[in-house]
Amino acid sequence: MIVNNLKILSMAIAMVMGNITFAQTAKVNDDFKPSEVNQPGKLYPQVNSQGCVRVQISAPDAKMVQLDIGGVTNNLVKDGNGLWTGESAPQDPGFHYYQLNVDGASVPDPGSRYFYGAGRWGSGIEIPADDSHIFALQDVPHGLVSELNYFSKHTGLMRRCFVYTPPGYEADANMRYPVLYLQHGSFEDETGWIGQGKANLILDNLIAHHKALPMIVVMDNGYAFKPLASADGNARPASVFEEVMMQEIIPLIDSRFRTVVHRDHRAIAGLSMGANQTMRIAMNHLDHFAWYGGFSGTANYPSAQPIDVDTFLDGKFKNGSWVNQQLQLLWLGVGTKEEPVFPKSIGAFRNMLEQQGIRHVFYVSQGTAHEWHTWRRSLHQYAQLVFK
Amino acid sequence: MIVNNLKILSMAIAMVMGNITFAQTAKVNDDFKPSEVNQPGKLYPQVNSQGCVRVQISAPDAKMVQLDIGGVTNNLVKDGNGLWTGESAPQDPGFHYYQLNVDGASVPDPGSRYFYGAGRWGSGIEIPADDSHIFALQDVPHGLVSELNYFSKHTGLMRRCFVYTPPGYEADANMRYPVLYLQHGSFEDETGWIGQGKANLILDNLIAHHKALPMIVVMDNGYAFKPLASADGNARPASVFEEVMMQEIIPLIDSRFRTVVHRDHRAIAGLSMGANQTMRIAMNHLDHFAWYGGFSGTANYPSAQPIDVDTFLDGKFKNGSWVNQQLQLLWLGVGTKEEPVFPKSIGAFRNMLEQQGIRHVFYVSQGTAHEWHTWRRSLHQYAQLVFK
């Protein structure tokens, strides 16, 4: 009895410490395969049918090596050749950031490709999902993803956006297209929607199956700050993203791409921080946008309190019938495994919409958290509704 | 005397071991600044006015941490907080790959951005050069860099190329442009000419100053293999890059972009392995190309022996006056610090050209090795001559 209690206590301690591996407590299926986002020719990291991640790294002189994924660290085991191997518990389907810890140094896994998220370029892994086909690279007509550098007066800096043009864009010089402005979340950048989000492949596949209209998609960086005056070096930088979007990005896109320059053909959407930003921008400029999408976010975040329509966003939702008239689509989505603050704040926003009689579409992503698979699915849904 | 000899012996051993740091043997200027290719907000790695690289990483439990750059490992020193810091000897101006070793694990530096080269995605650093302005990101008109996915029948795989279209390309739907096909080297891929080579910025700057004609530049992956027959799994894969280039890439580009479909408006160039590949392709298809560029490479590599024109590339250089008639430009370049095999094999090739009376341009990059700065300079030179 004492032995059993000690064992339970030691397991509990290990779990609290976050240092117990799934392999020590449960059966791990031995059907690991190299991850789809490995570097060319690299055998590790691997994923099995349970969604466990197995990593391997040579570190002959290390005392401790860990896999750090989903907020849990998993100890690796060393063999006689100095090769460390270990597994995580099953992960949700979709994309996850992770890193390795080698004797206390947090480093990217040399086997994975790298993605910008969580405020750094680092390792990512893909857990196959039942609906991975929505973003699979297939032999269908492919649009182009173009990188565009531009000088921004509002920030005093060179900035960059990525622009998806649909298949057929180059063929007919007279055809003009609607535009979706699509934003990333906190600690991410303009590379996220292509690198992790696979926005181009989602659109290619939808367009190939006639489920979405051909459209241009513009992905810029949601971090944009006024240059600090030299005399005021300690001031908190002021965001000018709305100014950059309205006065720099949109005119640039309308001048360089064959867009339809009209609110009915311009949509805006974003995830998390981007959902918050784009809702503010859309409501401040309804003369520019007729289609809104909020993926795992709304402008009342993080509050779950009832919204006061008189003051929220300067009363922009006060006249419900006017909002209905203006917005051809108000789309919201959230994953079932997101932290409570997201469904709660989105719920408070939806309560306000219902009280105001404002139409909206609400989508729930089953079994996914505040991560990219929720947002891929959200884009996949949203893109089928816009501009129709 | 014995002490002195022992000291010299121990220094010699340390240098042979590659584990002595520059800081231990010479004065290091204390004017380090964060590298231009750091991740956003990261203070390390840094570079000083001598071209020394300083790295820093937290690894509280590590026994040994090293900076591995230019084939030399430099030991870092640990402070009381588990922070390791150390410097390299001065590096050549330009771009270099590097990595960190943490208790025997070779990993990317979490502070740097990542580049594909040396067969892996890993750390890179930029040592400012006197001529860094040739690829500086400036407020000039910028072309687009487009990523294009396509299915390749010759390999049975989806492949990808990057396509630079010059400033103004979108403005005039009737304008057609010449095309440069530009290839990377061994253990690199289609991302190299943009990521490390800055080909887009070199062209943007040249075009802005009217030093190069507006052109399209296509960068594909030089590794392309026939699918292995299942019954013959041990066969060495056969390269089909020439077939992919001639039958898939060029028709794809001519169909999707506004090119001038004529040999006089089509150039091909490459670096190292890419110079070798593109010389073979150019000489096999002079009906398709009128401009060739070999950056640090030729098709006789690695041989320094006199070339037999009767057999070399099936006698393609035998009729010198015909080659002169066909090639409007045969351009060769090499860096002064490259390993002898490069100048020697290029020298043997040039001797053959002279014996055959074949005109060519020869460029020498001062103070650079078999690295990207040699190739940036080569492109900068070459792009000013083609299509004129």
Could you explain the architecture of this structure?
Chains A, B: Residues 1-23 form the signal peptide. Chains A, B: Keywords: Signal. Two copies of one chain form a homodimer. Chain A has 388 residues and is an alpha+beta fold. Chain A has two domains: 16-128, Immunoglobulin-like, CATH 2.60.40.10; 133-382, Rossmann fold. The first copy, chain A, is 25% helix and 26% strand. The first copy, chain A, contains nine helices and 19 strands. Chain A has helices at residues 2-17, 22-25, 192-195, 199-208, 241-256, 273-284, 320-326, 341-356, 372-382; strands spanning 33-34, 46-47, 53-58, 65-69, 72-75, 77-78, 83-87, 94-102, 105-107, 114-117, 120-127, 144-152, 157-165, 179-183, 216-219, 266-271, 291-295, 329-335, 361-365. An eight-stranded mixed β-sheet of chain A has the order 12-13-15-14-16-17-18-19, with helices on both faces. In chain A, strands 4, 5, 8, 9, 10 and 11 form a six-stranded antiparallel β-sheet that branches. In chain A, strands 1-2-3-7-6 form a five-stranded antiparallel β-sheet, with no helix packed on it. In chain A, a hairpin with a 2-residue loop joins β10 (114-117) and β11 (120-127). The first copy, chain A, starts with a helix and ends in a 6-residue tail after the last helix. Chains A and B meet through β9, β11 and β12 of A and β9, β11 and β12 of B. β12 (144-152) of chain A pairs antiparallel with β12 (144-152) of chain B.
